[in-house]
Amino acid sequence: MSVLALQLAGPLQAWGASARFARRTTENAPTKSGVIGLLAAAQGLERTADLTALTALRFGVRIDQPGTRIRDFQTAHHPDTGQAMPISDRYYLADAVFVAALEGTADLIAELDAALRCPHYLPFLGRRSCPPSRPLNLGVHSTGALEDVLAAEPWHAAEWHQRRHRQETTVALPVLTETRGGDTADSLTADTLRDQPLSFDPRHRRYALRTVQNRTVTVTNPHAQPATARRGVPPHDPTSLLEDV
Amino acid sequence: MTSRIILDVHALQNVPPSNLNRDDTGAPKSAVYGGVTRARVSSQAWKRATRRYFAALLDPAELGVRTKRVAELLAEHITALDESIDPAQALKIAAETLQTATGSKIEPPKRQAEAAKKNGTAEPAPASSYLMFLSARQIGGLAELAVEGAGDIKEFFKNKEHKARAKQIADTQHSVDIALFGRMVADSTDINVDAAAQVAHALSVHRAEVESDYFTAVDDRNTGAEPGAGMIGTVDFNSATLYRYAAVDVDLLERNLGKGLAADKSPATPVRRAVEAFVDGFVASLPTGKINTFGNHTLPDAVIIKLRAARPISFVSAFEKPVPADESGGHMEGACTRLADYIPELERAYGDESAATWVLRIGSATAKISGLGTEVPSLNKLVESVGAAVAERLEQRG
Fold first, then answer.
1. CB contact under 8 A, B314 and A73
2. N or C: which end of chain B has fewer CB within 10 A?
3. What's the whole-model pTM score?
4. Bias regions of kind Basic and acidic residues — which residues (chain B) (predicted)?
């Protein structure tokens, strides 16, 4: 088994798991269907292609910088009559950074790694207008499980974000990993998300429920400033001046 | 796939107080990046501006029409081809042909039809239920086919060969705008077209808050007895130095457009024309939101275009840390300094230094980026050089 690590960073991203019609929402973290879609597009698979090999990959994601949610209001007008078309709301995650990892057979992981370096269809982060702002690929790990890779990866948050946490030498980052089949102890405390892609065929896209385990990992903050370097509050007691009076 | 042809386009553009792209409250759109609020112009807004700009660049025959009233459009072409077909008949034939070609229902809009029945007026013309995007050549081809089967159109399309021809016409000879921006036909996904161009939301390189202009308007016929303002209100605006980014997948563009078949021209001609139109249109166009209020007609001060062999690269990360205003004000010089430092470093680190690069820039503020590639003196020259280089690569590959 090997693990492929990706960094998903960009001014805007959108990862919908229940988006329909005029309201296009986003989850707080990349979805498995979104990342599998990104990889399938890099490989040049058509939307009707068989996804069995890709969906069998075990998926995990770490929230390095949660970002903020913004709403984009979109109107369209009929070009002939000038009448307004239905208004749509598109939600985006602005300013977020994630580390995603996929665990699978060494051959498939090597193939995906190569595909990302020279992708067949242009990559985007959940929505076409959201190109990545950093190279996606963080490399292949041939040893260690998905959890180990997500724990070992350095903190990829932006420098300003790390500086904002300068009081903390280590930070805890949420990690959402897919449970292994039959992992009953985990499954009891896990959430489910309908983002396990079965088919991207635009005639009937289908997604299954996926069990997601919520954990945190601790990473070091390269921009931490030790507390000793900072001055404390100077002692200040105004009444001391009155003692001699 | 071994060798790819990918183009990425980067532009820095100053926009004075303006409101190019509004949200539902009327304020200019914004986004948070690098922890601070930025001005944002959505990709949809700029794609529409680019598409509209094409009307001035390209022959209407190379462009598409996006409309629900496809049946009327096709009927016009049918009667123009064969005057013996009366307009009502042409409309019926057109609807049947479109239904066969696109798999979408083409019928009179229900509510309008009911209203017409009630009022005893004529039945409205059949239309599609959503905007259908067809190229001028596709409309022309379908009109010819419809005239051929005009005798008994239903019987005509029962023939498998004719049916396949209708579908094939709708799926080939895409217009430049369909090939670049894609097409979605909900009822018949096999004739969808994947967009070859990817346009990012434009973001300001610096912190930009929304400001509010309080205005009063005077009533010209106010009397001395009532000297107040005729109306008051506010208009939201911001001003920004925008970083704009787009990428074109030339391989996909070629699949969408097909190779040129004219014997006296290079097979790369259609792709070259589309690439040139996109570069010209994307660089020079501007969304028209509130443009008469603010008169913010500007053009980019700096344009960088890269022709690559693997994947496109956005440089927006160079501005994640907001660019501070220069001592004398302005963000253009700071933004250019960032790009001049960032681009070579990024390309060295990730081993992509082989890209052909063109730079179009004006003014001393953009001097820093002059070393990044071949400088060209004008947008015309830029468009021409990029088009020639793309054609050359396509021809080399054969």
1. no
2. C
3. 0.81
4. 107-117
